Amino acid sequence: MLGLLGMAALAPAWAATHTAMPDTRSGRHIMPPVHPTTAPCDIPAPLTAAQLRVLTARTAATPPTVLPAPRPAAQVLPTAATEAGCDLPGRFAFVRLRQWAADTRIQGGHATRRIVVFEQRHWRADDGSGRETSLRYPPDPHPTTDDTYPPGTLDGPIGPIAGTPATLAAQITSISPPFLGAPGVLDATASLTRWRTPDRDARTAILTLLRHTPRLTYHPAVRDRAGRVGIGISATSDHGALRGLLILHPATGEILAYERTHFPPPQGHRRPTGQVEDYLLFIAHTRTSTTHTP
How far is CA 128 from the centre of its chain? Predict the structure, then answer.
């Protein structure tokens, strides 16, 4: 079955001169996040089937994100989100996203695992109506879908993402019960933003909620699969067997990516490399006036 998740603003102009930081995985250097000026909202076209096939072949075996040493939240998370280039008016929240999902199948007593990649567009109005288009590779009998939803039929809370921490906490709890702890908060935040575009107040509320959630770990300069460098926020469960990782823009607070990884038990003094179960790359969050734009 597919991974737990169902199926960001674009890389902004973070141009500035800063000391590079080493990437322990590749030996390259990663530039630390800086506070940019507002970048324009430039949304690329979705990938074609041929492009998605090439991307899947190139990225299906991508290992879990290597995280830099943690730092206290007060040194990493901004207290308030800044304006984003895609903070635009419109009836519908619009989300462009790409998902890598583990698909495990058991046949003849043997389990096989493959990665399925989805290219998706989501439109959602505050009344719970909307539209979804999806392209997947490897294809199944229905590799492309285009579904329209009448009011009240989309899952999740009716209305936008809350702009106050208390109301946002209630929305998070409706998706992820408190006993799931910090990993559940990260998972629910990603779930909310799959179909909704948080405005500046909502992004500030998300930052506030994360700053006050126990057992979260904060990492500066974490790179997502689009090459964007943001703030990493991670949490583990099941004695470290599962890790959730949320990557945020360091100034606007936009959700850039979310990763769920499973780590096998240690073997002696060596811990095996984990496997990514789900990865969401948020290519754009904005608002539109219709379900046919952009």
Answer: 21
Per-state percent for the chain, helix, strand, coil, to nearest 5: 20, 35, 50
Asked if 51 and 68 touch (Cβ cutoff 8 Å), the reply is: no
What are the tokens at 207? 């930052």
Pairing of strands 130-137, 110-124: antiparallel
CA–CA separation, 82 and 253 (whole Å): 7
Question: How far from chain centre, in Å, is Cα 192?
Answer: 10
Q: If residue 275 lies in a helix (H) or strand (E), which one and from where to where? A: strand 275-288
Phi, psi of 241 (to 5 degrees): -75, -25
Residues 34 and 197: their CA atoms lie apart, in Å, by: 23
Tokens 């019960």 belong to residue: 177
| 274: amino acid identity, one letter | G
Contact (Cβ atoms closer than 8 angstroms) between residue 32 and residue 17: no
DSSP letters, 186-231, are HHHHHHHHHH----HHHHHHHHHHHHT-TT-EEEEEEE-TTS-EEE
Distance, C-alpha 131 to centroid of its chain: 20
CA distance 67 to 222: 7
Q: Is 4 exposed, middle or buried (0-12, 13-18, 19+ CB in 10 A)?
A: middle
Contact 56, 103 (CB under 8 A): no
- pLDDT per residue of the chain (294 residues) written in tens, 0 to 9: 444 344 333 333 333 333 344 444 444 445 444 444 567 898 989 999 999 999 999 999 999 999 999 988 777 888 999 999 999 999 999 999 999 999 988 877 788 889 999 999 999 999 999 999 999 999 988 899 999 999 999 988 889 999 999 999 999 999 999 999 999 999 999 999 999 999 999 999 999 999 999 999 999 999 999 999 999 999 998 777 899 999 999 999 999 999 999 998 877 777 778 999 999 999 999 999 999 988
